[in-house]
Amino acid sequence: MQQERPLRIIHCFRSPVGGIFRHVRDLAEAHAKAGHEVGILCDSTTGGRHEDRLFDEIRPYLALGLIRMPIHRSVGPSDFAALWRGYKEIRSLRPDVLHGHGAKGGVIARLIGSALRVNRYRVARLYSPHGGSLHYRPGSMTGRLVFPAERIQQRITDALVFVCDFERQTYFAKVGAPRERNELIYNGIDDREFETVPPGPDAVDFLYIGMMRDLKGPDLFVEAFAQTERLVGRPLSALMIGDGPQQQEYSDLVLQQGLARRIRMQPAMKTREAFALTRNIVVPSRAESMPYIVLEALAARKPVIASRVGGIPEILGRDSTALAEPANARSLADIMARAITEKDWAARVMPDPSTFKSQFAASVMSADMLSLYRELCRYQPPADSVLPTT
């Protein structure tokens, strides 16, 4: 049997922070180690020192390079410039696969891939929503613009890839069931992350780690922490780690609640370093798709208390008592209180480690994704197909 040639894969997304960035880094590393050539195109105006360090770590796996250019969150005239520059950069790299992540990444990958096809060069065009535009309500002003646009783009999509069933069902309900191929491939994490991270000697009771924005619920964490103290009748300790547009608001909230000595705030850091600083992880999000922080925490054997949103029940179990009602600080506080007062709470409530690993390992995710790439590319012209120069 003839050995299949390596693929040239480019991931397109807007913001190099959070779960999308993590997802792409994992796929890039796994596929590069398997002998494929990988590149990234993303925004140049988002991220800080932490993200720069993450780019430095992934750069050795990017044979097709790292393309960073301004890609703004809102839709505007600047998008045309980004598309034109992206087209010129990607055309010169001659990809077999363009995989767009998030709404803006999906537009870039599919429009540029379609432009390459017009110029007689075929490329597989994939789109993973990762929540993104699916958070909007269909009746809202934004929803009335976004969801028809998503339906139109289905015509230039070779495959939709969902990271959890919640995301897929939400897409079907808000955008419509696609005629094109769609696959469910769960997020996965590396085997190295399935090593236990024990709490350090000065570990706090609860940790919030993530973006500092209302969607992720930092304000709910602060309110639930205060209620938990009242429920257990003693002072507790907490840590909030992350960066984001509303960071100062939450810092002010902590001060207003008189919790500055018991809730400390720190900038973004590597998750496993943060895990050593706590005994419990709290994920109070108002909306999610398939958050990596839950996977990472469970792999490190950290107890997780989370809102019943998005794909989180698919990880913790749909009937898990570690799940709080969405946007409900009291519901979170009730579980937080049980977590630190009931003996063996985590052992009774958290998923079985071996079952969890068999479902959410990065090796499973990357193999399934590569199989999909291969199938979509199988009938495409070879890599030396001639591209127009103008």
TrEMBL record:
Signal peptide positions on this chain: none
Enzyme nomenclature, EC number: 2.4.-.-
Residues of the Glycosyl transferase family domain: 202-344
Domain Glycosyltransferase subfamily 4-like N-terminal: 17-191
Stored InterPro entries: Glyco_trans_1 (IPR001296), Glyco_trans_4-like_N (IPR028098)
Keywords: Glycosyltransferase, Transferase
Molecular function via GO: glycosyltransferase activity
Keyword Transferase attributed: yes
The keyword Glycosyltransferase belongs to this UniProt entry's keyword annotation: yes
One Pfam family recorded for the sequence: Glyco_transf_4
Protein name: Glycosyltransferase family 4 protein
Lineage of source species: Bacteria, Pseudomonadati, Pseudomonadota, Alphaproteobacteria, Hyphomicrobiales
